[in-house]
Amino acid sequence: MKQRIELEAACELVADKLKSFSNETVKLVNSSGRVLAEDVRAPMHQPPFDRSPLDGFAVRAEDTTGASTETPVSLKIVSKLYAGDSPVKKIGPGEAARIMTGAPIPEGADSVIRQERTDWNDEEVEIKATLKPGQNYAPAGEDIKQGELLCEKGTLLRSPHLGVLASMGLEEVLVLPEPEVSVLTTGSELQEVGQELKPGKIYNSNNYMISTRLKECGAKVINSQVAVDEKDILRDRLAELIPGSDFLVTTGGVSVGEKDLILEVLEEMGAEIFFWKLAIKPGTPVVCGRLDDTIIFGLSGNPAACITTFDLLVRPTLIKINGLEKENLRKEKAIFIDDFNKSSSTRRMLRAWVVRTEKGNIVKLSKGNQRPGVLKTTLDCNCFIDIPAGSPPVESGAEVEIFRLPEIYN
Ligand code: AMP
Ligand code: MG
């Protein structure tokens, strides 16, 4: 299929062609940013034993009846417990145990008095307050009860989840798959950063932009290469990158110029081409297809076109696999408070900045012009305004639809 295709149809088409991905067991230490593939229930109590929440003395509350600063009660110290100790000696009537925060409360004791409310020496403690049973006493399971649902399937794992799961002694978790992606930036004009720029050349900014964007939406970049616009070289690079990659994202060489060779090379290599050209501006030139099990997104080299099609086509595809819904675009309405004086025969995606106000979203165009080769507008872009095909110029005050980028771009 080589005619222009609507964005939504393109996304569906790619979704239908996805192979099946398997959930993955990862070490807890590496699980931040991944999405849980199953509910996790507590395998144990936290704390695992009754423990003291403060430094003081474990006592029997009934032994402190009537105790106050004026009328202290004296108890015999029979043991000392630090955090990490296991309790040995039972507390009997008239007895107390010296105890530190986190130490297990000995049998017989039902409360803990903080040391600031006592005076003590090696043998005896003077208790200067009356305690209730259970006072300053953290029972086993106070925090988490064995069997309780801790984290639901679909949870995006962040530091609090890792803390809670680690408290349960869990070393591994089952998470949704992480798509493995290779990047190929193409163009004979490209030079790597750090080199002196030769006449007619430009720095390869797409590699940085796209590789980072991939990581930001939870994909793993496993390889990135550069190629000049020569068929043999392109074929070699593609043949090297495709096996072992779930996805390949290329930039450059997908339009109609004499050195736009990606489509031709992919066809010669036997790739199944899903479509060439999207019905949006910027970003009309996109080649999408599959070779073996690898889905290939051939994006335009123009940086703004490249980022737009990445966000609208590649990003939603990856998120279907890794479950990172938070990193997807959200469709919202906004009031346009700018002017866009061109009519749109093709559907446009304008780079823009949206702000939430009490009266709803207001949106204005990113600073700079909207041409596809423009890079700087991407600095000032937290959404795309979706202007339908056939629209007249957009006036200030008009209601528009936007695709809002995730919070990290704010
Ligand atoms: P192409 O898609 O190959 O027709 O390239 C369109 C425009 O994007 C040209 O001006 C290229 O020089 C530029 N371009 C292509 N690749 C890159 C890249 N990796 N980084 C920055 N600009 C690029
Ligand atoms: Mg080119």
UniProtKB/TrEMBL annotation:
The keyword Cell inner membrane does not apply. One of its GO terms (molecular function) is molybdopterin molybdotransferase activity. Its cofactor is Mg(2+). GO terms for biological process: Mo-molybdopterin cofactor biosynthetic process. One of its GO terms (cellular component) is cytosol. Signal peptide: none annotated. Keywords: Magnesium, Metal-binding, Molybdenum, Molybdenum cofactor biosynthesis, Transferase. Catalyzes the insertion of molybdate into adenylated molybdopterin with the concomitant release of AMP. This is Molybdopterin molybdenumtransferase. It comes from Halonatronomonas betaini.
